[in-house]
From TrEMBL:
Lipid bilayer topology: Multi-pass membrane protein
GO terms for biological process, alphabetical: protein folding
HAMAP family tied to this protein: DsbB
Cellular component GO terms held in the UniProt record: plasma membrane
Chain's role: Required for disulfide bond formation in some periplasmic proteins. Acts by oxidizing the DsbA protein.
Major subcellular location class: membrane
Periplasmic topological intervals: 27-44
Superkingdom in the source lineage: Bacteria
Protein name: Disulfide bond formation protein B
Cell location: Cell inner membrane; Cell membrane
InterPro entries: DiS_bond_form_DsbB/BdbC (IPR003752), Disulphide_bond_form_DsbB (IPR022920), DsbB (IPR050183), DsbB-like_sf (IPR023380)
Disulfide bonds: C36-C39
Transmembrane segments annotated in the record for this chain: 43-60, 67-85, 142-161
Length: 166
């Protein structure tokens, strides 16, 4: 099997994350879809994965650096995937089991201790269980979960391949 240049994978992950974040901003500001706290958290994880891909693209690390860059991308994807899975799970709950809507994200971080605000954020609320957008029958958090899994697998693959010399 021919060796693959890891920079192409970094570039693909970076462009994917930028495109996904760009669409999320379009959906928010043009289509009027207001993100819930779990959606905002998923955006942060896409931004982190994209940032680590950008660092890999710029510095083209070798040996230990390649494991670190791809490991951080993978951890970002695992974290984002866990948040997306939580939201998909909330969306699948029967209406009588959906948690009540909570305070806004700004209110939580302004008025609650950080640990409590973070715990409340990760639990999600009724807003997170509402499906307001679908594509091919899948909600936005489901698509996020699919992308986190795909990008995480690419990061893992990029960590394990034998790189082609530039």
């Amino acid at each position: 099997m021919p060796a693959i240049n890891p920079r192409w994978i970094y570039l693909f992950v970076l462009l994917s994350c930028a495109g996904l974040l760009g669409y999320a901003l379009y959906a928010q500001h043009v289509d009027g879809l207001h993100p819930c706290p779990l959606c905002i958290t998923q955006r942060a994880f896409f931004a982190l994965a994209g940032f680590f891909a950008l660092m890999g693209l710029i510095f083209n690390p070798v040996h230990l650096g390649r494991y670190v860059a791809n490991g951080l991308m993978l951890l970002s994807c695992i974290g984002g995937g866990a948040v997306a899975y939580r939201q998909v799970w909330l969306q699948g709950l029967p209406p009588d089991q959906v948690p009540a809507c909570g305070p806004s994200l700004e209110y939580m971080f302004d008025n609650l201790p950080f640990a409590e605000a973070f715990r409340t954020l990760m639990m999600g609320d009724g807003n997170c269980a509402e499906v307001v957008w679908t594509f091919w029958g899948l909600s936005m958090p489901t698509w996020s979960l699919i992308w986190f899994c795909a990008l995480g697998l690419l990061a893992l693959f990029n960590m394990l391949i034998t790189p082609k010399a530039d």
